[in-house]
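Figure 6 in text form: structure in, sequence out.
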C-alpha cells in the first residue's frame, strides 16, 4: 500500500520535521512503502502538490495550526481529483480541534479526512496501512507504542539537507513525554506517560549522519531530556565514549537533584546550549503552574550551570491565571537578582490559552489586557538591565 506523508507550508523551515521522519522510518522497516514529502521546504503550486499526492493510494497530512488552512485546501482538491484516495489527518492541530470541539470534529474536517489520528502516529498508521481494505470514519486517540525500543533508527530519506537553513544540524529524539504535568502545557496532551529510547540507537543515528551527511550539531526535540537522570547520564557517557563529545542542545527541566558532576559531564559530552522553562520567578505562580520547583531551587540550579560553563536561556510567561501584580514584580525581581547566572532570556510571552488544558480562557492575552501590558513592561525591564535576548522570540506566540 503506497503511502505519502505530506507536510504543507507554512511551518518551521530551519530543520527537517522529526515527526514524519519517525513515522516513515517505522513504516518502511515493517514493509510499508511510506514517502515523506516536504512541500514546506520544497514549494509547489496547489496543482503540483495535488498531482504528486494523487499518485498514492493513501495520503497523510501532518497538521499544525499554521498550515491547517493549506491542508484543508489541498485535501479538498485531492479528493476531487482522485476520489478513491484515502486521506488521513494527524499532528498537533488535530488534538487542538478535538478539544476545541469538546470531543467532536467539524463537518468540514470529517468530510475531507477518512481517518483522524490524535497523538502518536506509528501504531495507528501501521494498523491502517497493513490492511488491504481501509475503512473510513476511524479515529485514533493516544493509541501509542508501549515502549520506544520498537522504533527503528531514523533515516531522513528523500530529504535534501541543502533546503534547510540549519547549519549542519538535524533533530534527534531520546524520549517522548514528560514526567511533570505543568498546567499550561498543551504538549503533554500529545503523549501519555514518559518513554525513552536506548542511548545506543541515538548514538548510531548521530554517527551515521556525522559520517554520511556532515552532521555538525545534534538538536534534541525532547520535552525534557533530563527526565530520567540515570539514563540521561548514560547518553552523555556514550557521547563522550563514541565521539569524545559531540555538539548538542536540548530542552531540560530545573532539577535540584542534578549534581555538579553530571553538569560537568554534560559540558564534556558536547552540550553547547539549553532551553529551560523557568516561566516565573514567583513561588505563588510556580505553584499554580505546577512547575515542580521553587524560585530558590531555580536560582541554585542556574548558579550550578553557570559554574560549569553551560550556556542556557530561559522562557517566561507573564499574566498567568491568578498572577497578581505582586507576583509579576517578584518574577521580574528574580531575574534581576540572578542576572549574573542567566546568560539569556530565550522567550517571553503573555499567557495564551490552549485547548485541552484545564485553565481559564479569561486570562488569555486576547481577553485580558493585563497580558499585553505586563508583557510590554517585562520587555522594557529586561532591555534596561542588559539581558541578552532574541527579538523574534519576545512575544512570538502573539498572533499577528
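Output sequence:
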Amino acid at each position: 500500500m503506497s503511502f505519502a506523508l505530506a507536510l504543507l507550508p507554512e511551518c518551521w523551515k530551519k530543520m527537517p520535521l522529526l515527526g514524519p521522519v519517525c513515522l516513515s522510518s517505522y513504516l518502511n522497516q515493517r514493509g510499508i512503502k511510506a514517502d515523506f514529502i516536504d512541500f514546506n521546504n520544497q514549494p509547489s503550486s496547489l496543482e503540483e502538490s495535488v498531482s504528486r499526492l494523487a499518485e498514492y493510494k493513501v495520503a497523510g497530512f501532518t497538521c499544525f495550526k499554521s498550515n491547517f488552512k493549506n491542508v484543508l485546501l489541498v485535501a479538498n482538491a485531492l479528493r476531487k481529483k482522485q476520489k478513491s484516495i484515502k486521506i488521513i489527518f494527524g499532528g498537533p492541530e488535530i488534538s487542538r480541534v478535538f478539544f476545541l470541539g469538546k470531543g467532536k470534529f467539524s463537518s468540514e474536517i470529517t468530510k475531507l479526512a477518512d481517518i483522524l489520528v490524535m497523538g502518536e502516529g506509528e501504531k495507528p498508521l501501521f494498523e491502517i496501512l497493513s490492511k488491504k481494505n481501509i475503512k473510513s470514519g476511524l479515529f485514533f486517540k493516544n493509541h501509542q507504542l508501549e515502549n520506544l525500543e520498537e522504533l527503528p533508527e531514523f533515516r531522513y530519506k528523500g530529504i535534501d539537507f541543502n533546503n534547510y537553513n540549519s547549519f549542519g544540524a538535524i533533530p534527534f529524539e531520546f524520549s517522548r513525554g514528560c514526567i511533570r504535568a505543568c498546567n499550561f502545557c498543551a504538549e503533554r496532551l500529545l503523549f501519555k506517560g514518559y518513554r525513552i529510547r536506548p542511548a545506543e540507537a541515538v548514538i548510531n543515528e548521530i554517527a551515521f549522519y556525522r559520517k554520511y551527511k556532515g552532521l555538525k550539531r545534534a538538536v534534541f526535540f525532547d520535552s525534557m531530556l533530563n527526565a530520567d537522570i540515570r539514563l540521561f547520564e548514560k547518553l552523555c557517557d556514550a557521547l563522550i565514549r563514541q565521539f569524545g563529545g559531540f555538539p548538542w542542545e536540548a530542552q531540560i527541566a530545573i532539577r535540584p537533584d542534578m549534581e555538579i558532576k553530571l553538569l560537568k559531564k554534560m559540558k564534556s559530552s558536547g552540550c553547547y546550549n539549553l532551553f529551560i522553562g523557568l516561566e516565573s520567578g514567583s513561588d505563588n505562580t510556580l505553584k499554580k503552574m505546577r512547575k515542580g520547583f521553587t524560585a530558590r531551587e531555580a536560582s541554585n540550579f542556574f548558579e550550578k550551570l553557570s559554574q560549569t560553563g553551560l550556556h542556557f536561556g530561559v522562557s517566561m510567561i507573564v499574566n498567568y491565571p491568578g498572577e497578581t501584580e505582586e507576583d509579576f514584580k517578584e518574577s521580574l525581581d528574580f531575574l534581576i537578582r540572578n542576572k549574573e547566572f542567566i546568560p539569556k532570556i530565550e522567550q517571553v510571552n503573555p499567557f495564551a490559552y490552549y485547548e485541552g488544558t484545564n485553565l481559564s480562557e479569561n486570562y488569555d492575552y486576547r481577553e485580558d489586557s493585563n497580558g499585553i501590558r505586563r508583557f510590554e513592561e517585562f520587555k522594557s525591564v529586561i532591555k534596561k538591565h542588559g539581558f541578552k535576548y532574541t527579538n523574534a522570540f519576545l512575544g512570538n506566540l502573539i498572533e499577528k
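Caption detail: Residues 151 and 163 are 26 Å apart (CA to CA).
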